[in-house]
Amino acid sequence: MMEAVQSPKEVERELVVMKFGGTSVAGAEELKRAAKRIVAAREEGRSVVAVLSARGSTTDELEAMAREVAGRPDPREMDMLLSTGERISCALCAMAIVELGHRAISLTGSQAGIVTDSSHTKARIIDVRADRIRQALEEDSIVLVAGFQGVSTESNDVTTLGRGGSDTTAVALAAALDADVCEIYTDVEGVFSADPRIVADARKLPVVSYEEMLEMAASGAKVLQLRSVEYARNNGVPIHCRSSFSDGAGTLVIAEQETMERPLVTAVTHSSNEARVTLTGVRDEPGVAGEIFGALAEANVNVDVIIQNEPVSHGGGADLSFTVESGDVTDAVEAIESLDAAEGIETDEKIGKVSIVGAGMRSHPGVAAKVFEVLGESKINIEMISTSPIKISCVIASDRVPDAVKALHNAFDLGSGAVFEENPMSSEGHRPRVTPDPEQ
Ligand code: ADP
Ligand code: ASP
Ligand code: MG
């Protein structure tokens, strides 16, 4: 008697979500290369959902077009415009895949069921209704989803997820479809100990924990959008970050494990597109900080480093400084002007931030001292400081950011020749690796 043979539909196929960034789909050659990679995964027997970014610098060009016709482009219309970039990539890639002899269908974010809030240009994904994707997979199609966009069910309008948002589309789909892995294909070999475009001997990291990657993304390592890492951690989605242009092993971003190497410092990160807002003569009474930061939250402005000084003279006002992304300065100033909280507002758009991140630095104050010394030796003035258990950030002049990154990377021996079993801080008497504090 013949054994019962399962039809392909009944076999639980592995599912992979593959995301290709802008450089990886820039020209026809790159796009065809991505199509081949997607087809290869399908031919290995996996179901494939691919999320694509806009080609090359398309999103920058679309933003520039908007600014040619409007000083402050209407956010709803901005999203209509920006969302077109990723749709172009997906339709073209679907054509290339069909040409390779496979079934393929491209979907907008809305068609793919990416539901967001209504916060135009920085919307958050609140639900993924992936039925249409599941149906297309059942029909044996490769599904191409336009990254970086969704739809608000409140307004029925197209939204976008903020720069770098295709990473978050990919992770959200991987979570909703219970994919085995979310592969992020980009123009570098993985996550490095510093931006390889600034530090020539930056070391590729084989594994990074969600916690470290969250701090790295939050402090400027744009290889993964911050929200994609939050989403991955909250839903336990393993991220595999790799190059579109080679077959290297890449970097795994996963939950922290006992066996993970924990050097004091894992990476130096930076960002140059920050601005500082300083309020002088802030009313010195309870509730004022709440009013100020409440107004900023209401205006959807993300605040990073905050410093407040007590008034020096009795009855005088306090000084309060905080940093925001450069693109948010106008909104921040408008939000504060609507309050009667401070006498003056100043802004400085020429600031940047350099940070060091490492799960091993928990409860190691010596690391902070070393960072300040290194920046001092390089004659780099520190304007603001903020810390978390696994990160130290310094706000500095934006034109000194590359020097600061190189100096810190060098001082902590993070280069590709570095041996992590040795203690980069040994001359100062610190232990090379630390066991995480169970209370943290
Ligand atoms: P994509 O278009 O593929 O989404 P991005 O430009 O958003 O690519 O992110 C990749 C870039 O991130 C790299 O080209 C690199 O310059 C930059 N980058 C910054 N910090 C890091 C880091 N620590 N490791 C890897 N890349 C980094
Ligand atoms: N195209 C968008 C951007 O350039 C989204 C992305 O690439 O992730 O930011
Ligand atoms: Mg990106």
Summary of the model, kept short:
The chain is α/β, with parallel strands linked by helices and 440 residues long. The chain contains 11 helices and 18 strands.
Shape: globular
Radius of gyration from CA coordinates: 24 Å
Quote the CATH topology of the largest domain: Carbamate kinase
Which CATH class of the largest domain?
Alpha Beta
Supply the CATH superfamily name of the largest domain. Acetylglutamate kinase-like
Would you give an account of this structure?
- The chain is an alpha/beta fold and about 450 residues long.
- It has 2 domains: about 15-185, Acetylglutamate kinase-like (Carbamate kinase, 3-Layer(aba) Sandwich); about 270-410, VC0802-like.
- It is about 30% helix and about 25% strand.
- It has helices at about 30-45, 60-70, 75-100, 130-140, 165-175, 210-220, 225-235, 290-300, 330-335, 365-375, 400-410, and strands spanning about 15-20, 45-50, 105, 115, 125-130, 140-145, 150, 160, 180-185, 205-210, 240-245, 250-255, 265-280, 305-310, 320-325, 345-355, 385-390, 390-395.
- The protein has an 8-stranded mixed β-sheet with strand order 3-6-2-1-9-11-12-10, sandwiched between helices. The chain has a 6-stranded antiparallel β-sheet with strand order 14-15-13-16-18-17.
- A hairpin with an 8-residue loop joins strand 14 (about 305-310) and strand 15 (about 320-325).
- The longest helix is centred in the first third of the chain and has 25 residues, at about 75-100.
- It is globular, with a radius of gyration of 24 Å.
- The termini are far apart.
- The model is unreliable at about 1-10 and about 420-440 (pLDDT under 50).
- The structure holds adenosine-5'-diphosphate, aspartic acid and magnesium ion.
